[in-house]
Amino acid sequence: MNIDVENISEVLLSRFDGLDNKADILKSRELKTLYSIIPSLPEAERAIFGKKVNELTLKLKELVEKHQQKLEVPEPIDITAPFDINQNLTNANQLLTSDNGSQHPLMRELDIVLDIFYRMGFSAIESRIIDDDFHMFGSLNFPEGHPARDDYDTFMTKDKLIAPAHTSSMQNRVIQQNKSELEHGKAIACVIPGVVFRNEDVDSRHDHTFYQVEGVYVGKNINAGNLMATLRTFLEEYFGRQLDIKSQPFYFPFTEPSFEFALSCPFCDKKGCSVCSYSGFIELLGCGMIHPNVLTQAEIDPDVYSGFAFGFGLDRLVMMKYDIEDVRNLKSSKLEFLRQFS
Ligand code: PHE
């Protein structure tokens, strides 16, 4: 028989580099053929041929092993050592202590916001992340089937519980719970931070889940001037500078009149910049005088008392303060982004 082991050896060796799984070379058809013909050879040739085939197999095994060793470069790991996984450790001096966690920028800003309102005489209560139809709609003067309900359409469970689209769903509770303030001749002054949910296409300025801060103030002879002054005082304190404010009529079922409220851009002093889209003003929030029906639902006589309410997105406010270009960064868990605030 005229089979040349050298030739086959060359063929197999030239194939080796291209193999994904190097061990496949030991299962190759050619090698199997070599073994299969050994028994049929004349005795004189058998020993020499067999030896050559064995040598070839050993050589291939060695190659496979060498390759595997190269892949398994052992890394010395000291699991007790504090170190930064982002560093290439070349010497022990580069070992770092582990990072400490810190408060999330949104929560830190919320503390600052609440602190300003505390100093203005407001108390705070957190909103609910699941609520019922009455608090989300009925108590807020959205009659059943009213088209304005569509603007606040989110999820509803089988038991008709709703993921609230705004913190206004707390207005009725807050007014009812603090009614005694009015009886003592004081005013109800509450801010309500909480998570809200929107049926929203997500982009750099919109998220489906975000924080809102609601404000509710009820007393005697409260007017829209009080509302504007309260918002201006808060915002000037928060941004640490004087601001111009602007309002224009808007529609919310639960306030009458309702306003869209804008402040002069804290970055360019109304000159126009990328933050305010070159308009000099930034629309920040919705607000208005609490609708008499909302007061009645909370068992307050609208002929005796009046009040204002406002609601703003905390994420938006923080974005504005720090000129953050994408709202999604705030929930991205990107440490590089978050560390800027610590
Ligand atoms: N709840 C309104 C919104 O999220 C904002 C608002 C709050 C308007 C209070 C008026 C009074 O769209």
Structure description:
A hairpin with a 2-residue loop joins strand 6 (245-252) and strand 7 (255-264). The protein starts with a helix and ends with a helix. The chain folds into two domains: 5-72, no CATH class; 105-341, BirA Bifunctional Protein, domain 2 (2-Layer Sandwich), CATH 3.30.930.10. Helix content is 34%, strand content 18%. The model has no long low-confidence stretch (mean pLDDT 90). The chain has eleven helices and nine strands. The chain has helices at residues 5-16, 29-37, 43-71, 105-119, 133-136, 171-177, 179-183, 224-239, 292-297, 314-322, 335-339; strands at 123-124, 131-132, 161-162, 188-197, 209-219, 245-252, 255-264, 281-290, 306-313. The protein binds phenylalanine (PHE). Phenylalanine is lined by residues 166, 168, 214, 252, 255, 258, 286-288, 309-311. Residues 166, 168, 214, 252, 255, 258, 286-288, 309-311 line the site of phenylalanine (PHE).
